[in-house]
Fold each of these.
Amino acid sequence: MTGILYFSSTGNSLQIAKRVQARFGGSVIYIPNYTGDGSEFQKTFIVTPIYSYGLPTPVFDLLPRLNKDKDVVVIQNYGGMIGGADSLFYEYATQLGLKIKGIYTVKMPENYTLFLVPPKFYTKSILRSSCKRIDKILDKIEKGEFVLPKSKNNKEKTYLKNKSNWHLIGKRFSVNDKCIKCQKCVNICPSANIALENGEIVFKDKCIACLGCYHRCPQKAIVYLEKKSKYRYVNPNVKESEIGKDF
């Protein structure tokens, strides 16, 4: 069986994971739900966004426990810059003794929009061509044309510094008077950073900067540093309700 392990907060990685499943079959599994080591799979894919030139915390934490005898293919997606994230992934996985068969990167819409919002036409353009870009990668994998990074990562210190500070972001979120206490943010948070306490939504200090709560709040009631941005992004090529689910 093929295992497709993915992490996604707004649907970009899920779109890729479902595309992989359509081509190679197997099970799509949300990484925060997964407690195994990959030994049950004949083939393993890891589909992940790039965060701060590196790995989201759930992916970073997954790698040390993966079976070292199984081949792993990685597809990373990015909205801004790769910044050597493919090399960092490869170096880290190699240090752990994992058998990385190939690492591919693919451009997807930006969802880290706390400070800068991309033009709508640009996001729509990237989405329109996303399936073609994903399929080109899958064609290479199907043909056995595996790609590994050639250059060394030069952003590791930046990544590790940013990763160590992600927990601070949670304290910068709050809810405005549009909040209806539906608790969707509580239920979808992959790090259990959000809670309903004494009738109020509370953000704690375990944030991993995925921004799933921010983008997927049905009322757009979650705000960052009390800014009044109306822009939110959820990949329209997947069902929002499927993000964080297994298939």
Amino acid sequence: MKHTILFAAMLCVAMTATAQTESNDTLQIKPSDFVLQEVTVQSKNVIQKVDRQILLPNKEQRKAASDGISLLQNLQIPRIVISPIDNSVKTLSDESVQLRINGIEASTADVKAINPKDIIRIEYHDQPGVRYNGAAAVVDYIVKHRDTGGSLMLAGTNGLTLPGIGNYYLAGKVHFGKSSLQAVATYAPYDIYWTRTNNETYHFSTGKIENNEVGEPTRYKTYPVNVSLNYNWTNGDKNMLNIRLRDNMAYSPYGPSDRDSRLYQPTDSFEIHDHDKSSSQSPSLDIYYQHNLPHKQHLYFDVVGTYINTHSDRRFEQLPLSTLSDSGLSTLSEAVYVLSRVRGDKWSLIGEAIYEKEWENIMLTVGARHNQQWVNNTYLGSTEATVNMTTAETYAFAEMRHRVDKFSYVVGIGAMHTLIEQGGQKQSTWIARPQLTMSYDFGKGVFWKYKGYVSGYQPSLSQLSDITQQIDKYQMRRVRVE
């Protein structure tokens, strides 16, 4: 990519200077004009750093973009796929890409609010370090800070062949001095019909049952609404404070796993109606602080508090149809009804502190992260119970990254401690977490990558609670950890 900078300076001197000598002579200085010729500076549009690629959008790419997502599409980054329906960003292996703005984790709606003219560069991490908490890839938008002014953006899309699918977006931002305030709201309804066809075989000690299920048009309908309010304070290149308040709400009168179908067996046939109505709300507060030190050193602190409230009502019906037995008589099997309700409350507090030091070809990252969760679930319907559980996860880590031309490697060490408490019982575990990543870029989209690691995770409440839930006529779900 060429950057052409035209210096056209006109020096116009319109003055007369007088200097006295011993002979009283007068020196006259005449004005002269000088015009500097055009100067062309050439640079690459992709700069490789030890831990990331820096992408510099050109004028044409910016002009053809309406927001941060469309600019990312114009850059055509290898191994990155952007959905034209919901603007989600994923890798070729269908893993989510973590989005950030000036180092702060952001949503797709936040990125859509960026004016392409304000984007200085885009930093692409195809091998994110431990700082990014296991992300498959990271796209970080480095955006210029403005002292005054503001912006308002309104956008919307709706399907033609699928009119029930839409995506609507509203964002406003105002700048004042070192601060800025932004509000974003999105609404993405989904209202479609789909069919399910499924064949399955159950093996019991008394024999087997073969099910041939033929789907009928079934409705899926959901109304997700996400809103956020963001305050940012930037003190030049020294430090930055960002406070974000979010609330994600969703109401689904017809769930994605709903189905209406006919079930055929060798001697019986049934109508199947499986429907789930759910709602959720998850407000959160995120406080992020970054402090930049001399010699390419950085400190990052982040605290996130979240509350999640969920309601789910599932109704399963297996209604028999009249069939003929071997004797030619009409028979009617027993109907099956399953009703299950779940009311969930979850509180979580996540905090992290990270130190980072960068040299020319080496990056060092040291830090710690803690995740504390409190869960209360109430089960109603065919099963009635209440479960309370507390989990904690602490992870300390150190990572060194080195790049030599097209070859790079990452060596990391870490230790994780997990704690689970439920019903007066506790389980505590220590896990060592080493990792090694190596990669070589052959160019033209061809690369080799190896990754080996030991990981750990907290099991979910459904995996830990001693609760039995009926799924349908043949299956029960029960996971118990002794």
Amino acid sequence: MECISVFDMLKIGVGPSSSHTLGPWRAAERWIAELKDSGHFEAIRGVQVFLYGSLSLTGKGHATDIAVIMGLMGQDPETLPTDTIPVILDEITSKNTLKLSEKITIPFDYKKDIVFKKEFLPFHANGIRFKAILNDKTEMEDTFYSIGGGFVVKETLEHSQENKQTFKSFPCPIKTGDELLGYCFNQQKSISEVVLQNEKALRSEEQINSELKRIWETMLECMYEGCHTEGILPGGLNVRRRAYEMHQKLKGDHPYSNPVEWLEGIRKTEVKFRQIFKWVSCFALSVNEVNASLGRVVTAPTNGSAGVIPAVLMYYLVIENHKADFEHIKKFLLVAGEIGSIFKKGATISAAMGGCQAEIGVSSAMAAGALCELLGGNPEQVLVAAEIAMEHHLGLTCDPIGGLVQVPCIERNSMGAIKAINAAELSLETDPKDAKVPLDKVIETMWETAKDMNSKYKETSEGGLAVGVNLSDC
């Protein structure tokens, strides 16, 4: 069983898709690194990239081609100023050259050297094959798969020995919800405390706190940007940003000049009952409007579902507990990350494999469980909350119109956040002994549903709203 850290589930990257943008970006980086390790990098005279299956069918709308280019160039999705991406692309297309890893300039025809192939490779729906042509005219090929949430593997799915040993050295190696509860009961600890023990096997608590703060700051900045940006989203659907206008109606007149002051001002604002879910929706929409604009978001567990967790965490900070501090944020993210990892181990977080239940459904379950712990729920109730949230997302299709992570994706984040809050509240009123469906069973059911789902409803733009809506009417 692979080691999955909280920081594997919550990653900083560029939108609009973790599997179609961040994954191919990381695959390109990894391929270049392997060529360097093998001593072939300096001999490269040309490169071609072949995108298969879902990466081909929705790749243009998900900016897969752009992500591959950025990865080949050695740009870092965590730090690259996103407003420079169009400038970089213009230079590549005008000069027909590409600078690999910021070191070697090669001829490159953007329209010909990235090839979209609709056929699916047998191993996974998101296949990407790289070809290098060397100075002696020999060719080297390698194939990677973007399996959701920015995770990238080769077909063998062989994890490094170091990774396996790390899992074994975890104080509490966890594959299932039942195993997680066992550690909680035996040690009389909360879920966040158990997860923290495992994370300490990988890094110091100081490093854990630093990285969690960076993740939260990125979430907050993303919400801030989305709430203060108006206009039309790119891509041709002419989707108008809504978070800006919603925020203007809700925010009141408190002064602020940065995301931290903004948050503190909202927390001091008297929020009327009817405004609570409007705020939650505003937070969720803001993140995914930034994501749809190739902005920087936190993959949680995917980019398409990046708005759910920050929106629910903001709900806790703004509505439930005005005195909450970093320790509360830390617990929330630790619990959310662990729940997400259990879903990944038992099912999938890839929409190309499982439909949108694997994205919005999983993110809603993560947020519900995390909120439940902060609201005082015991470990059993936390897993009940996660189960309730997923149970009511089972079978959700992934059918983005025009292959863009906009319709219905952006609104689904609002729905997922609202369901997460509701699931957490329901779990607090539930005696776990009365719960009929354990978390592990709903994960198993989700995976069976994913395998039974018609492939056209799995991020291919060949079914559902993607074909039911005429693009000329948008």
